[in-house]
Amino acid sequence: LCSTKRMQATARMASVVSSTLPARRRLIRSVRRFLALPMNNVDQFLQAFGDTQSPDGQELLHLIRLGTFARVSKRTGSWPCHQIAAIYRRQVQDLSAHERSDPVVLRQLSELVAELSRTPDADCELWEFSSLSLDYAVFVASSPHRIAGCIRSQGTPQHELDATGIA
Predict the structure, then answer these.
(1) CB 1 within 8 A of CB 10
(2) How far is CA 107 from the centre of its chain?
(3) Cis before 120? omega within 30
(4) Nearest Cα to 96, choosing from 86, 85, 107, 87?
(5) How far apart are alpha carbons 68 and 27 in whole angstroms?
(6) Is the CB of residue 164 less than 8 Å from the CB of residue 133?
(7) Structural element, H or E, at residue 116
(8) Which of 22, 52, 151, 155 has its CA 20 to 30 Å from the CA of residue 102?
(9) How far apart, in whole angstroms, are the C-alpha atoms of residue 58 and residue 124?
C-alpha cells in the first residue's frame, strides 16, 4: 500500500521537475529521503496481520487496503488479556440487560471476550483505525500473536457526510 503511494508520488515529482542538473539532484535527494522513511503503522499492521483469517480481520484488511482510514495508531503499552476480557464481559452483561442493545455490538464484544479468555495471561495491545464514518478498535493478543477481536463503530452517518460533501 505505502510503496504504491511512494511510487506514485515519485512519478509526480519526476514529471514536474525540469531536466536541469540541479533539479535532477534535488529530485534524487528528495526520492532518497522519501524512500528511506520508516515503516508507518499501516505497514507494520499489514506486515504482522496481512494474512489473518478472521471475518472481522479480513473486513478490516480490505478497508485498510482501500485507504479508508485517515488515522491509524497503536496505543503504547499492553495489558493482560484477562483484564480486558473482564472489562468487556461486564459490558456484555450490562448491554444484555437492555432490550434496545445493538445485537452486532453484543456479538462483537462476546466474541472478543471469548477470544481473549483463550489466553488470559498473554498481553494484549490496542490498535485504532479511524475515518470520518468508521472506527475500529483492534485487540492484538501476543501469544499466539493474532487479532483477538475487532470492535467496529460507526462515526458520522454516511448520509450526513454526503450532505456536507466532505466524504
Answers:
(1) no
(2) 20
(3) no
(4) 107
(5) 30
(6) no
(7) helix 103-118
(8) 52
(9) 20
